[in-house]
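DM from R.C. (forwarded with permission)

"hey, sorry to bug you on a friday — could you get me a structure for this? deadline for the figure draft is monday and I only need the backbone to look sensible"
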Amino acid sequence: MMGTNDPQPSMFYSINLEQFVTEDDPFRKIRSLIDTDHIRKLCSPLYSDEGRPSVPPEQLFLALLGGYLLGVTSERGLVRRLTSDMALRWFVGLDLDSQVWDHSTFTQNRKRRFDSSGIMERLFDETVKQAVEKGLVSDHASLDGTLVKANASHKSFVPIEVFMKPSEYKKRIRSLDQDEGNPTIDFHGEKRSNKTHVSTTDPDAKLANKGNGTAAMVGYTVNGLMENRNRILLGINVETFRGPASETEGGKKLIDDFHSKHGVRIRTVGADKGYFAGKFMRDLLRRKIKPHIAAKTIGSEKVHERVRRMAKTMGYRLSQRARKKIEELWGEAKCWHGFRLFRRRGLLPVGDEAYLIGWLLNLKRLSKLIPAPV
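My reply, with the result:
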């Protein structure tokens, strides 16, 4: 017979938060890879021995990580999700009776403690170190750059006046226009460039495009170095857009940082045609790295000819096939983890946000490659 809804609720419930987290839940798989004691140790120098007890720093980092895993990048939205999502509460370490902190807690801790501490970079590096120690990192890598929108609009760009600071100029512009949220500025038909204009909202953000006929956007260049076997991100950084140089110079920095931090040498680097520049490929050869770069017909230097000959080898073809996987990583981050638009402003805070997303992407890979403890 047809069942009916029992209108009489129970007076008492016996609930354990862990029962809301299934065995195949990404929260459970990722949580086993995170050492909260290590996070507390990293954060310890940032706190005073006096005063009221703070929100545990490991809970703040876990909340941010869990929010980006769910695609919740707003701090207010994250607090709402913490209030109602039992699996997220378990991941962060909050009991049913624990009060969720105010959304401003994230902002204040970033400004006062975390922004200049480098902790997010170290947490990202820990996942790379773990992958290296487990033998999950090959000596073949791929390099790619992507544009990510900044949290600023085209309307925020104003002519540069060198005798006035951006903050002062911003106040002056707002004093002339009462519509502070979305100034009624008609910029159509006006010639603007990064040499003549600056954003009052985020001075580090620049007008950027890939040069393929698409419209310019306000954003940053994000570079990534990925090993080819298991798609582990070996490095990630954010550069102020300055044309192709933001990708090539940022890419070389990632390679050098990986070599110095982890003691593993890369033998080949695959990349798209944007890296088919003589200076960049010569720099790779000086580092004893084979440049498996997508070859173009233009370019008459010896290194261009060398790479064109290299294109006939099997290793080159395998690198070119594997290097497309890093584009899949960017797509995953942009579709599911809020990477289409940076929420923070300024090169340093935006870099921390990129490290957070890189940390998340690596944890997702490692959770599938490393067996969970019994």
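R.C.: lifesaver. The radius of gyration is 24 Å.
me: no worries. DSSP finds 14 helices and eight strands in the chain.
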